[in-house]
Amino acid sequence: MVFGLMGLLIASMAVGAFIYINSALSPVNEKSKNIVEITISRGSSVGTIAKRLEDQGVIKDERVFRYYVKLKNEQSFQAGNYAFSQAMSVKEIIRSLQTGESAQKPKIRLPIPEGSQLVQISEIIAANTGYTKEQVLKKMSDKQFIQILSKKYPDLITNEVFAKNIKYPLEGYFYPATYSFYTDKVSLEEILDKMVGKTNEVIHKYKPLMKEKNVTSHKLLTMASLIEEEATEKTDREKIASVFYNRLEAGMPLQTDPTVLYALGEHKDRVFYKDLKVESPYNTYKVKGLTPGPIANAGELSIVAALKPAETEYLYFLATSTGEVIFTKTLEEHNKQKALHITKQENTSS
């Protein structure tokens, strides 16, 4: 009798486990049309991937997912950006991870390059959506919308964006990345929120260091934007950062050409001496210290450089036509390099 009851109990537990596992492998919501975007980093373990999927509501149970992957000997998950649906089964999710293909193809893709300025970003959005450049710019500067973003991202967007002489409050706050949207009816608010949210995500990683250095998000993004605009592929961003910090400490103007172009509102291959006379709080040839705000968006490398500058005594740098950057300590050394590499007197450098 006892053995019979034990057998019945074991059988019941087995059936219960089967039902639970079968349910855990089924879609979270077969009728759902919601798209969940997840980035799988290179080298992520199955456990890490499973936790991300459960946290984002794409699977029901990370343990069942892990055991299933191990039991079936599923391998070769690929890093990348994925768009999953809650209507997908675990088998479909695994197949997507193995092929590197998202379950859904984006209706809208917005590639925002590093160093893009707010006006350029508005043009990219306009070119890939049904919105006009004017509509995008208006929303980007809408104080009510900015205040909504500030409540959502209080550590990122502060009253500093409304400080005196700021040209565009959210300049530098739209992170450079490729953004995908899976409906062609996406709102401007959603598009811009996603870009600001990405900046918030990146900045958040460096909060402890920012606190240690007593630097605000606005000041960090401002310095990072100057570094980004001066950087080339061959540039050591940390050394450029050191030049800027050394000049600030010495009470020297930063004298960086991109700020002159930003003040002029123009894009030119060279800055001429006459351009340096433009009256603007953004002209670092006339005004000491940082610009009132960022002059472009900065990638993570420039953000890190702004927080971790190299320890140097350099006060000058010169970009050559090959993209090489020459750093010097004195004006005399700088002028010698300038004479060697710059043939036209109108051409200036930082």
UniProtKB/TrEMBL annotation:
Top-level taxon of origin: Bacteria
Keyword Transmembrane among UniProt keywords: yes
Function recorded in the entry: Functions as a peptidoglycan terminase that cleaves nascent peptidoglycan strands endolytically to terminate their elongation.
Protein name per Swiss-Prot or TrEMBL: Endolytic murein transglycosylase
Family to which the UniProt record says this protein belongs: Belongs to the transglycosylase MltG family.
InterPro entries assigned to the protein according to its UniProt record, in alphabetical order: MLTG-like (IPR003770)
Keyword ATP-binding set for record: no
Keywords annotated in UniProt: Cell membrane, Cell wall biogenesis/degradation, Lyase, Membrane, Transmembrane, Transmembrane helix
Catalytic activity, as annotated: a peptidoglycan chain = a peptidoglycan chain with N-acetyl-1,6-anhydromuramyl-[peptide] at the reducing end + a peptidoglycan chain with N-acetylglucosamine at the non-reducing end
PANTHER family: ENDOLYTIC MUREIN TRANSGLYCOSYLASE
NCBIfam families noted in UniProt: endolytic transglycosylase MltG
EC number: 4.2.2.29
Residues at the site labelled Important for catalytic activity: 230
